[in-house]
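Many introductory courses stop at the sequence. We go one step further.
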Amino acid sequence: MFDAQPIAADIYLIKQILHDWPDTEAVKVLRALIPALRPGTRVLLVEYIGQEDSNPEEEIGSEDGGDGAREDKANEEGLRILRGMGSATDLRVMALFNTKERPVSAWKKIFEEADERFEVKSVKAKKAAFYAVVEAVWSG
């Protein structure tokens, strides 16, 4: 995982891997891709997205898709439950792996620390989703 990537590809998918690692090791995993990257190569990161301190739904560019007050109330209840589950997940990875579930800003920082030539192009998630897809493009 920390060895240089020997195979060049157009897209690399990293799914539910980096959230188990502290920041320094997550950066090392991304740096291991660099020898195989070409300009325009995409790295798709599918990970749990923790909450930001301020308005997490806005930060991840989510869509709530609500069609009415009744649905909004049900969505709010569902979000409350999901936030509680997210807090439990955060505590588990902290206890087991000495890391934390990261908000979007932390994932962007990890890409920046790995190499300034990674550019986070998009983060796609819905308001009630545990997971998001973070898309970074290598500018070479």
